[in-house]
């Protein structure tokens, strides 16, 4: 029987990596942006952005649901090194959008049209009620 390798032991080495390093934004097209300071710009300029933790099953479900609708969201993979910076930036974005709301976002955090849409429960609830597709169309993430 083979021994399972823990995820943290599998991370790529400095010599060569098969996948982009954790903490980078990955558009699915090989483009990456690495610092948390670009979070605000990323949310403002893209129709759908998903802030996710690698290996998280809830984050994976959100990505699958959006891809299933034909949306190609920007994915920001949050890791232990940049989690605090990213959550601070997201808190600032949320507090500017909703006066007096200083909540720390939980991962996955999905932004649609520059505003926080929510996490897995919010995305699934909107999908089940039929509100997700109109919101994605309004944000110009869907063309049909």
UniProtKB/TrEMBL annotation:
PROSITE patterns cross-referenced by the UniProt entry: GLUTAREDOXIN_2
Instruction: Give the keywords, sorted.
Output: Cytoplasm, Redox-active center
Where in this protein does the record put region Disordered?
A: 11-31
- Record-annotated Glutaredoxin domain positions: 48-116
Claim: Cytoplasm is one of the keywords in the record: yes
Q: Which domain of life is it from?
A: Eukaryota
Its localization reads: Cytoplasm
Task: Check the record and name the InterPro entries matching this protein.
Answer: GlrX-like_pln_2, Glutaredoxin, Thioredoxin-like_sf
Main location per UniProt?
A: cytoplasm
A GO cellular component annotation in the UniProt record: cytoplasm
Q: Name one Pfam family in it.
A: Glutaredoxin
**Family stated for the protein in its record:** Belongs to the glutaredoxin family. CC-type subfamily.
Indicate what this protein is called per its UniProt record: Glutaredoxin-C9
Taxonomy-wise, where does this protein's organism fall, top ranks first?
Answer: Eukaryota, Viridiplantae, Streptophyta, Embryophyta, Tracheophyta
State the gene name recorded for this protein: LOC105167881
